[in-house]
Amino acid sequence: MRDTATDQVDLAELDRVELEAACAARGEQRFRARQLFAWIYRRGITDVDAMTDLPLELRTSLSRDFVIRTPQIVSRERSADGTEKFLLRLADGRNIESVFIPDTPAMTFCISTQVGCAMACAFCLTGKMGLVRNLTAGEIAGQVRVLAGALDLRDKPFNIVLMGMGEPLHNYEAVMKAMRILCDEHGFALPPRRVTLSTVGLLPALEKLGREALMPNLAISLHAPTDAQRGALVPINKKYGVADIIAACKRVPVRKRSRITFEYVMLAGVNDSPDDARRLAKLLAGVKAKVNLIPLNPAAGIPFERPSDAVVDAFARTLSERDVTVSVRKSRGRDIRAACGQLIVEGQQRSPGQRLASLAFR
Ligand code: SAH
């Protein structure tokens, strides 16, 4: 990607193959690209002048032609439970949020894939923003660079969940390119099994994902066992319904001993009855599935309530009695509004589409 104002190439937007091509185009050897890649991702260096194993002359010419764009930390909030929410500013002044969740048991970064989101799920705050724009591959991988650096975790194993702002399969190419960058052996060398992509189930993209060489674990935001219920919560269900999503999940290749996670936000009186649990168990029969119950994180403007712990437990028991593996997601970082569905960035300039959307919500 070239900056039209300065004509500089942003190295953070290139996967290693592209970086090698960029080096070759300048008459440099390919191993220079591997060196650059290791500096950027392994050591977190964004200033070419600090790359001391490159000849001085090369450093000078590279810093003239190349930039390495990095999201800037605007603020950092720490929850009582150790969760940290980062507000990051992108090159165009837009803001996104990324969340660090310690000891789950691994260290986990929850990363955004879009500014806002077009899916408009009825219980999600990010959905209220509408879609402002897609993130680039460099901005998606850049969140990992920034968090790993700020938390001093660059050399430690960590997991990534694509569960921040945005619908990852609605920004498919950039997400897959970010996967290539993050999993590259000369960079973070992240194993794909350490990445989980969470989606509402955009079917064509889901089918495509199943054929990717670098395939992350899958989490499907199901939330209800029938089309009537799900359609009222997840608008895109009218296009890609429950039966089609389940059929696609049965076809997707799943690693040995691994399962597809089905996320289920629990809303009091809406989808939390024993009958709902029985229907869900029936629906998932024959799928390599585990269910993750997420009791709603309530917020102003979200017209639902969180069920009691007793209701959640009963729902979980009904599932496990029917041999469905089930866990209840512990909400992390609710005191700093970093929990699921609570990521929203205020004070952004709004697009005409967003202004219309906000009128519709009144
Ligand atoms: N767009 C993707 C990625 C977001 S992941 C997806 O929908 O899967 C965030 C998870 O948190 C999703 O399962 C989402 O449905 C859930 N979520 C959204 N709002 C929530 C809320 N208020 N309380 C609990 N979970 C919520």
Main beta sheet strand tally, sense and closure: 10 strands, mixed
> What spatial order of strands do you see in the largest sheet?
3-4-5-6-9-10-11-12-13-14
How does the helix and strand content classify structurally? alpha/beta
Mean pLDDT: 91
What is the general shape? elongated
Which band does the percent of strand residues land in? 15-25%
* Unique ligands: S-adenosyl-L-homocysteine
Q: Distance N terminus to C terminus?
A: 40 Å
Radius of gyration: 21 Å
Low-pLDDT segments, ≥5 res: 349-362
Please tally the β strands and state the result. Answer: 14
Task: Record keyword descriptors for this entry.
binds S-adenosyl-L-homocysteine; 33% helix; 362 residues; two-stranded parallel ribbon; alpha/beta; elongated; 12 helices; ten-stranded mixed β-sheet
